[in-house]
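Troubleshooting: if your tokenizer reports a length mismatch, compare against these two reference records.
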Amino acid sequence: MSTNPESGAAPPDDVHLIVAKDEEVVIEYHPEDWIAFVLFWALAFIVFLQFFTRYVLNDSLSWTEEIARYGLMSLAFIGGAVVTRKKAHIAVELLSNLMKPSPLRSALLALADFVTLGFMGMLAFFSVTIVERMHSQRMTVFELPMSIVYGIVGLGCFMMLVRQIQVVWRNARDGWRRAPEVTDQIHAD
């Protein structure tokens, strides 16, 4: 151990050159997280059941393929609400990332938010129409209306719309300012 040149004594053992502190991690669960969690594991179970009955028992259950298809549709739209809340939808952000913070960049980000909001609004509107039209159709295996399946899809669309409204509100309150560096834009959620 080296000595301190000024005092001639060794530094105490509790002195460190690098100090790392763990940040407080807060994990929040929202309704769409729980719905997606349940749908995912139900879908995993149904697909495993389909695989097991088809390849191990050599006698496939007839309902597993149809329900797995509907479960995947539902999971995609409920998962869309999760992704909307986290602002993690696939986007081409090259232009806004190349621009320096300015009113023009803020206007571009605002335009992107409002176009997304309009699209989510159209999805929610048309999902109601589809649910109404599909009420007379029946599932192939079960005698249930297809409006149940499309109702879950509609629920996902409305959840995406609500989450996008919240995103637009937050971004508008912040003036559509985003961190100038791309690495600073990554959120720990």
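Reference record two:
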Amino acid sequence: MSERGVRFAPRALRHATVFGAPDAVPAGGAMVLVVPHDPLPLPLLARVEQRDRGVFAAEYPQRGPEVRRLRLSCRPPGAATAARAVRGRRDAQRPRTRRVHHQENQAKEEKPGGHVMDGAHRRTGVLVRMSGAALMAAGPVMVLRGRMGRKEIRTELAAQRITFPDHGLPAHLAALAGRSVETGAQAHAYAELIKEHVAQATGGRTYAEITEELHATGDDDEKLAQLRQTAFMGETLRGSLLSAYQAWHLTTLVMGLGGVLTGLGAALVATADALGAQPHRP
């Protein structure tokens, strides 16, 4: 009686060895398979029972915690030959396509693709986690930079000491009377106020239009020269305030994107955790 060990064989060779064991047992003889655990021989026993019913007998001479010995014994020649003949006739009557499908299904069952899928599963989880961690690191940095930029804008506006008049403001700006310009919204409101005042002083003419009129007089009209200076100063201050207003909006966008990236990063990390928690295919 021969003994065949499959504990340390590669997965593919191990299955081939186990499922080919019945064909190596001579009629009236026996073979002992040394296997690492019970789940391995169970498919073997089911297959033997399906194709060689009444020919083989199986028993466990040793069923320890680490090593199991499974003894396959083949019945006497007469019984074995008769059983194999019945099996041959049954296989011959089975449609070819059914046999092909059966063989393909067996190949899929025996193919060691679980490790490949597990490796791809792990690599996907690692990539998702790394992407999430990067976004979670970049998001707070963007929020911090946005807040620092907004603080700089406040400091620069406060340094200009621009204050809304106490009276004479349009109705939509009445709430800002006497307040200093410190935010982007206030800078925009004051820029619009300057636009109205310059338009009133110049009769709706721009700095370029007044300059053309002054040149037409040979630069000898003092009133036009003063009016041009007023238009220049008004439009320059208005442009500075509008730049501060745009920068304020930019800091808002940066902080918003930082918050979105942080949330997206947290979602990716959670997804990676969920992928890691899913059971792998054996």
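Descriptive notes for reference record two:
- The chain has a mean pLDDT of 77.
- The two ends are 33 Å apart (CA to CA).
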